[in-house]
Structure formats: structure tokens, C-alpha cells
């Protein structure tokens, strides 16, 4: 005796077999109406329809809280004016406004926006805020393509075509013919339908219309609908309206998710201090909530306050000792604080937890090298190369192998490694810079100059190519170029003593002329 088909479909859904669930619901929906037994509240037809919309939504569902990519359009055509001279420690977009406590760029490399590289890749760490249109088009690439992220980022574009993939015969629901007002009066169907329109069809405008009608039908007392309206406003770039909806939802029902959405709005409006206060108020009501503590740690990290960030990540581990992001960030913090042995313990902990990827072995290899455990270094890098999923990851491993080669004094091997880095990733500014230094040692001045110019055009936020170019130009007697490059170096890293000394020398030269 087989299971009743609707129950079988529900069983598939619970086991996350969404394709089978959707197919079975389609068969139920194709039955003639006479064969469908009526139920007290729901007909089998309605139940199958609702279940199919949920299954199709789950296939493409992405959590909106963590997913946040700022595209070129949002960055450059941003109408939200921000203070050009923000008070120290109040802005994410102006890197010079941190409270200090962060390592210098000489020790810890920085991203294009002037923030130190984090120990864990998140959407917000993928790209900084470029200062010019040229930089915007040049820098924030998606992980695997050379196409810049646009406001309709790859994820949204995929979702728009998802209906064609999940249903070869065409879309399951024809949105243009839907009577949204009718569905808004059936709360149980309306919620499933909203999520389908928002996540699967990626039609924010229709989703907003449905949510507005449904919240009206619920006499503005249902917090869930207010959160959904806030999500739609956020996606449409209406951040202040989104803020009102999330606040209203919080007044009705205290939820961790709503706090996270509201904080996301404040971060997009470049108000990190307000977001921090919101998280701290949330922790009073939800003590020990990991996502809130983690949110505070991320903001401090983005504001370059690394010591406070590490403290909060340690608090995260007190609540959840298998939190990958916290372990990785504390590990990278120890590594850049010249404590590779302690960093090694954190990365080994990740390995014991079952994290098994190229980046982890890359980090293990570096920690072993700096902790003078040379027997493990090369085997870790070999494993990293074996696990690399794309050319960018392979390039990272070869670049680090180049560093190790410089450390052991084998400059020929280092030269080969940096060349292999560029074979895998032609935009690797650090490798161009290091190759130039090796060329300078060999006395190949012109090659070194060309490589340094490439490095500084690819990564204007790095001070090393500018400084090296200034030194090189000064050696060959081109003082004007040397002075220009030294000024760029000082702009990228104001506290660099060697740059300041070079500028001082050059000014003395100019005074003598």
C-alpha cells in the first residue's frame, strides 16, 4: 500500500527533495476536479499548489540577511549623501576614521577601501567602495567572472530565469494574471505566494503589492508582513522606508531576524554606530545570541578596530565553539599579530571540524612556515594546490609559495612561483610588485619599472608599488617621478617612515636645485 500522494509530497519536502516534491504536486494539480476530495478548510488542490510554491521557492532560496552585494550602480549612483568629513569612528566608507587599534598596512594587507583583509570572506568584504568610476569598473569582480558586479548582480539575474529552469513548460504561476487582492485575504496561501514571487520570480514590485494588501487585510497587526515590506523596500533602495517598517515590526514582535535586517539598513546608510547600538540593545533582550555578537564583531572589524573585534569573536566562541567565521577571524588576527603558533591551533581546530578546502591549507602552510615547522609547510601547500577550485585560488597558493621561497633564500624558485601566480591570475598586483623587486636585484631596471607601474595601476590602494617605484626612480635620477610616487605611497599609508624619509630627502634635493 503506497502513501497518499499529498502526504508523499510533504515527506519529500521535509527531506529537502524539492524536485520530486514539485513533480508530485504537479501530478496532483493535473487531476480533474472531480477526483479531488474537499477538505474542511483547504482543498487538496490548494494544499498541493501551496506545497509546490514552497518547494520551488526553497530550490532558489537565499537568506537575505547575509546576502548583500553592492554593485557599481549602487556605489556610484548613490543618492544618499554622506558626510565628507565624518567624525572618527563613525563611518565605514571613509577608511581613515577608525578608532585605531588596527594593524598597519605594513603588517596586514588592506582592501581597496582601506580596511584590513578579514579572516573570512563575506559579501561585504568582497569589494570596497571605489572612489572613482574607473576604479569601480576595474575592481569589484565576481568570484569567477571578469564581469563587474552590476546592481542586478548575478544572483538576481539567475533568480529571474529560475522559473524557466524549474518548469520547462513555462512559469508555474502567471503573475500578470494574478488577482493579488483575492490572495491577500487568504493568509496561509498569501505567505507562500509572497515568498515564491520574491525569491523565485524575483519580482519585487508585485511582491510589495501583495505584502501591502495582506498587511492591510491583517489590519497592520501582523509583524511578518511588515518585515517582508521592509525587505522589498530595501531591495528597491528605499532605505528610510525599510527602516520604518522594520522598526514597526520590532515594536509588535521582538525577533532576532528583524534586528539583523534593520542593522543591514543602517550599514547601507553608513551608520555603523547606530547599528552597533541596535545590536547591543538586542543583546539585552536576547542574551548570548550568536548572530548579534557576530554582527558587532563584523562592524568593529570593518571599522578597523581589530582588537575589539577579536574580543567579540571570542564571545561568539563562548556561545558556539564551532562557529567557523569566529575561529577563522581570530586565527588570522593572531597570524598578523606575529603569533603564528596560536593561529595554527585555530586553523587546526577548523580542520578537526571538517572544513577541508584550499584556503585552510593555504593558511596552515603559512602558519607552519612562520612557526618554523618547515616539514609541514610544503605538504600543506601541495594539498592546497590539489584542492584549488579555480585559478584565483591556485594563484594565491603560488604567491604564498613565492614568499616561502624568498624566506628560505631561493630567489630563482620565488621568481618561478610569482610567474605562475600571474599565469593563473593576470590581475595579481602583489605578484607584479614582488617580481619587480626580484628584477631590481638582477639589475633589470626597465622590466622592474614596467612591472611596478602595472602593480600600482591594478591596486592604487597598496603603498608598496608606489614606494618601490619611488626608490627605483630616485636611483636612476628621475627625481620628479620619484617624488610623485612617494606622495602616492604616503597617501596610501601615512605612517610609513621610509616614505617620509624619502620625501624629506627629495625636498632637500629640490631646495638645492
UniProtKB/TrEMBL annotation:
Q: Which InterPro entries match?
A: BBS8, TPR-like_helical_dom_sf, TPR_rpt
State the species of origin.
Galbula dea
Q: According to the entry, what is the taxonomic lineage of the organism?
A: Eukaryota, Metazoa, Chordata, Craniata, Vertebrata
Question: What protein does this entry describe?
Answer: TTC8 protein
Asked if the keyword Hydrolase belongs to this entry, the reply reads no
* UniProtKB keywords: TPR repeat
User: Which spans of this chain does UniProt mark as TPR repeats?
Assistant: 429-462
Q: Which SMART domains match?
A: TPR
Q: Is RNA-binding among this UniProt entry's keywords?
A: no
Q: Which Pfam families match?
A: TPR_8
Q: Which PANTHER family match?
A: TETRATRICOPEPTIDE REPEAT PROTEIN 8
Amino acid at each position: 500500500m503506497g502513501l497518499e500522494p499529498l502526504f508523499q509530497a510533504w515527506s519529500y519536502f521535509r527531506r529537502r527533495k524539492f524536485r520530486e516534491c514539485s513533480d508530485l504536486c504537479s501530478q496532483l494539480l493535473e487531476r480533474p476536479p472531480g477526483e479531488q476530495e474537499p477538505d474542511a478548510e483547504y482543498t487538496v488542490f490548494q494544499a498541493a499548489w501551496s506545497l509546490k510554491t514552497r518547494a520551488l521557492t526553497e530550490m532558489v532560496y537565499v537568506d537575505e540577511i547575509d546576502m548583500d552585494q553592492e554593485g557599481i550602480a549602487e556605489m556610484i549612483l548613490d543618492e544618499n549623501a554622506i558626510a565628507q568629513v565624518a567624525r572618527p569612528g563613525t563611518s565605514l566608507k571613509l577608511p581613515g576614521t577608525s578608532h585605531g587599534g588596527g594593524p598597519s598596512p605594513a603588517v596586514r594587507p588592506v582592501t581597496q577601501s582601506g580596511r584590513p583583509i578579514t579572516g573570512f570572506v563575506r559579501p561585504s568584504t568582497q569589494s570596497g567602495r571605489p572612489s572613482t568610476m574607473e576604479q569601480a569598473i576595474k575592481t569589484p569582480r565576481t568570484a569567477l567572472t571578469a564581469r563587474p558586479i552590476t546592481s542586478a548582480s548575478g544572483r538576481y539575474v539567475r533568480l529571474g530565469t529560475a522559473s524557466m529552469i524549474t518548469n520547462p513548460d513555462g512559469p508555474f504561476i502567471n503573475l500578470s494574471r494574478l488577482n493579488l487582492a483575492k490572495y491577500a485575504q487568504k493568509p496561509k496561501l498569501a505567505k507562500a505566494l509572497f515568498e515564491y514571487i520574491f525569491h523565485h520570480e524575483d519580482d519585487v514590485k508585485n511582491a510589495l503589492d501583495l505584502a501591502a494588501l495582506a498587511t492591510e487585510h491583517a489590519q497592520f497587526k501582523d509583524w511578518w508582513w511588515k518585515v517582508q515590506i521592509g525587505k522589498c523596500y530595501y531591495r528597491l533602495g528605499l532605505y528610510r522606508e525599510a527602516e520604518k517598517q522594520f522598526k514597526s515590526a520590532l515594536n509588535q514582535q521582538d525577533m532576532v531576524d528583524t534586528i539583523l535586517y534593520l542593522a543591514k539598513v543602517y550599514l547601507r546608510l553608513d551608520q555603523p554606530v547606530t547599528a552597533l547600538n541596535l545590536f547591543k540593545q538586542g543583546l539585552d533582550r536576547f542574551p548570548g545570541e550568536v548572530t548579534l555578537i557576530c554582527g558587532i564583531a563584523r562592524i568593529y572589524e570593518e571599522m578597523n578596530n581589530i582588537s575589539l573585534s577579536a574580543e567579540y569573536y571570542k564571545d561568539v566562541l563562548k556561545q558556539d565553539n564551532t562557529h567557523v567565521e569566529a575561529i577563522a577571524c581570530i586565527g588570522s588576527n593572531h597570524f598578523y599579530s606575529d603569533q603564528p603558533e596560536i593561529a595554527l591551533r585555530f586553523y587546526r581546530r577548523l580542520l578537526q571540524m571538517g572544513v577541508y578546502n584550499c584556503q585552510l591549507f593555504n593558511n596552515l602552510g603559512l602558519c607552519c612556515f612562520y612557526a618554523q615547522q618547515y616539514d609541514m609547510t610544503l605538504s600543506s601547500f601541495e594539498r592546497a594546490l590539489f584542492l584549488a577550485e579555480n585559478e584565483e585560488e591556485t594563484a594565491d597558493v603560488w604567491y604564498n609559495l613565492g614568499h616561502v621561497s624568498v624566506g628560505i633564500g631561493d630567489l630563482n624558485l620565488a621568481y618561478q612561483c610569482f610567474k605562475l601566480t600571474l599565469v593563473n591570475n593576470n590581475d595579481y598586483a602583489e605578484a607584479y610588485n614582488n617580481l619587480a623587486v626580484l628584477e631590481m636585484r638582477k639589475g633589470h631596471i626597465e622590466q622592474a619599472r614596467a612591472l611596478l607601474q602595472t602593480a600600482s595601476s591594478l591596486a592604487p590602494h597598496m603603498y608598496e608599488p608606489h614606494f618601490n617605484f619611488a626608490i627605483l626612480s630616485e636611483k636612476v635620477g628621475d627625481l620628479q617621478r620619484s617624488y610623485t610616487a612617494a606622495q602616492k605611497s604616503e597617501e596610501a599609508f601615512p605612517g610609513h617612515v621610509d616614505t617620509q624619509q624619502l620625501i624629506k630627502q627629495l625636498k632637500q634635493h629640490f631646495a638645492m636645485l
